């Protein structure tokens, strides 16, 4: 089957809006958290968010949005976007430039797009409230396509004239990891030659705050303490938004275009916990199976994996569940493979997480480093036995695993290899 490579990346994240800035912040362990003004009310327990800089999308009217003059987006395209759509469009433009794609490369039956987003709770509320107050015939005709879960793929497929496979994925925090896995299958099976993978979230008040109702958000007021996966004192995750776009291409396309890939996509595995609608299996049963499936499908032995970019969100149950799953899969090699969670720097991007962190893995593989797991003061005893570096390591890694988990116990493990 054709080999598959990542040839382009685009980032709009809390730690940077381009690959160079993101790489620098990953290396230096600089986080993207701020005290979030919309949360500074007595009845809101969480105070910190991973904020997107240089974008203003607080208005329900896209005409009011502001963003870098680097991006030129026609007004008629903006009208049907949610904030996550704007982030994704800009990240898409970056990825196209980064991978040196032409218009012909982008718009043809061999190029498709898979996207992942939770939609826009903010715009859903705005448009529904307008319907109730002034009547349906005074609602925006673009309100639905701007707000519902498929808004990313609707807008991007139309704007970039995608003719190949397109689909939106909805498995909560595993969504964009699923999108990468299924895109790999399409490429390896010869169905497509190139796939754009897009993950994006609004990252605003309406997208983040409902998780406080689940008691999953950190209550820390200090941005330096709010997200600390694997730490004994962690108390929840920090929400964030933004977008990441990855370009996946077959080996033939890489050779034809003469581009240098970031890394190879070896393959993937998935499995489910079958346990609880919202809580990870205590022993990480589904994630253990997903990692095992990925290793078996890619013919990779556990001892060949150098680094695991963990899903670990900084929640009490989830981090321990993943630690147990990793120990179970890697056994005697668990003390060898480096494990870190970059959510200590970015926060949890929800359905964006798998794509964003896969982008980080691609950067780390090409640039030769392993990001440290930041903000750990005292390691949770339940995570002992894992090799969790607290500072960035300059190291040439060969094979990296990326884990993602979502509600209902959906688990994905992706494997990447240095070129």
Verbal overview:
- By secondary structure, the chain is an alpha/beta fold.
- It has 2 domains: 4-257, Peroxisomal Thiolase, Chain A, domain 1 (3-Layer(aba) Sandwich), CATH 3.40.47; 266-409 and 412-416, Peroxisomal Thiolase, Chain A, domain 1 (3-Layer(aba) Sandwich), CATH 3.40.47.10.
- The chain is built from 15 helices and 12 strands.
- The chain has helices at residues 19-28, 75-78, 83-99, 103-106, 121-134, 143-147, 151-159, 175-188, 205-208, 210-213, 251-257, 285-297, 316-330, 343-346, 353-367, and strands spanning 4-12, 33-35, 48-50, 111-116, 166-169, 194-201, 242-250, 263-272, 307-309, 338-340, 399-406, 410-417.
- It is globular and about 65 Å long.
- The model has no long low-confidence stretch (mean pLDDT 97).
In brief:
The protein is of the alpha/beta class and 419 residues long. Helix 3 (83-99) crosses helix 7 (151-159), helix 8 packs across helix 15 and helix 12 crosses helix 13 (316-330). It is built from 15 helices and twelve strands.
